């Protein structure tokens, strides 16, 4: 942010001046381009298939220690740690971090989080610490979010992010009791906004959103992650619980 010049130094110590293709403050990601030939590339994995307890490696340059690799396991998924501000265009921050216990420090941000197949499954982004150094947990942006942001920045120079048009909150005990829900999974619709896609498609105040496309959503963070993968105009199927019935609504 606010950089006037960006240099990228590769593992062979060659330095390249980079062009900033685009930035997305809502996910804390940017797309950079360097000119050259025969650059190696990393294959994308699928962060949706990542399991808690799975081994991962974090790669980066902590404290200017070049090409450092640390190992750990996935501690949790879908973490919202409230560190990203909404974008200048009013776009809501999208936080659905992969939490790991691989040691990550200043200098790891922007580096790869890979699985044991050497596939990219996240971009290291943050640590939870009172000291500014690693104290047990680190957080990475899931690659399935990264893929969408990169494609949009490459094609449009900005992120084209869809919105349902709902005011939402997590399901708590009071909501579950009132709605006779079997558990606390899903997202409570406090309001369907006038002229919004959700209201036009038939979502009502009091509905519980439990599924977006083929993905179950257990909380607000997971819902925001899934919706953020779509562009305005995309057609998706959203499943809600209403009066004990499951209803599929194309939006």
Search tags:
mainly beta, 6-stranded antiparallel sheet, 35% strand, globular
Give a written overview of the molecule.
With 251 residues, the chain is mainly beta. 13% of the residues lie in helices and 35% in strands. It is built from 4 helices and 15 strands. It has helices at residues 143-156, 173-178, 197-201, 220-227; strands spanning 6-9, 15-24, 29-33, 55-60, 68-79, 97-100, 112-114, 120-127, 138-142, 166-170, 187-192, 208-212, 215-216, 237-242, 245-250. Strands 4-5-6-9-8-7 form a 6-stranded antiparallel barrel. Strands 10, 11, 12, 13, 14 and 15 form a 6-stranded antiparallel beta sheet that branches. Strands 1-2-3 form a 3-stranded antiparallel beta sheet. The longest helix is centred in the middle third of the chain and has 14 residues, at 143-156.
Give helix and strand order, one letter per element, not per position.
Answer: EEEEEEEEEHEHEHEEHEE
Label the structural class.
mainly beta
Query: Which percent range describes the beta-strand content?
Result: 25-35%
SS element count, helices:
4
Cα end-to-end separation: 35 Å
Shape: globular
User: Residue share in helices?
Assistant: 10-25%
Low-confidence stretches: none
Q: Could you tell me the mean pLDDT?
A: 90
**SS elements, strand count:** 15
The major beta sheet can be summarized as: 6 strands, antiparallel, barrel
The whole-angstrom Rg is 20 Å
**Strand order, sheet with most strands:** 4-5-6-9-8-7
């Amino acid at each position: 942010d606010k950089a006037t010049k960006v240099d990228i130094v590769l593992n062979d110590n060659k330095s390249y001046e980079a062009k900033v293709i685009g930035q997305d403050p809502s996910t804390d990601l940017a797309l950079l381009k360097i000119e050259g030939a025969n650059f190696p590339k990393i294959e994308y994995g699928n962060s949706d298939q990542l399991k808690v307890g799975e081994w991962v490696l974090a790669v980066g340059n902590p404290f200017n220690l070049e090409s450092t690799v640390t190992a750990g396991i996935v501690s949790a998924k879908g973490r919202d740690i409230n560190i990203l501000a909404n974008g200048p265009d009013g776009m809501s921050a999208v936080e659905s971090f992969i939490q790991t216990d691989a040691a990550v420090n200043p200098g790891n941000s922007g580096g790869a989080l890979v699985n044991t197949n050497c596939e990219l499954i996240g971009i290291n982004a943050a640590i939870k610490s009172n000291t500014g150094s690693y104290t047990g947990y680190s957080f990475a942006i899931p690659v399935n979010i990264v893929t969408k942001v990169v494609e949009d920045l490459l094609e449009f120079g900005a992120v084209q992010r869809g919105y349902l048009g709902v005011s939402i909150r997590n399901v708590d005990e009071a909501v579950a009791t009132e709605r006779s829900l079997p558990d606390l999974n899903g997202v409570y619709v406090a309001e369907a906004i006038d002229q919004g896609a959700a209201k036009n498609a038939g979502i009502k105040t009091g509905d519980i959103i439990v599924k977006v496309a083929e993905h179950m959503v257990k909380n607000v963070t997971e819902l925001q992650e899934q919706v953020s993968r779509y562009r305005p105009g995309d057609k998706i199927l959203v499943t809600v619980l209403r009066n004990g019935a499951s209803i599929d609504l194309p939006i």
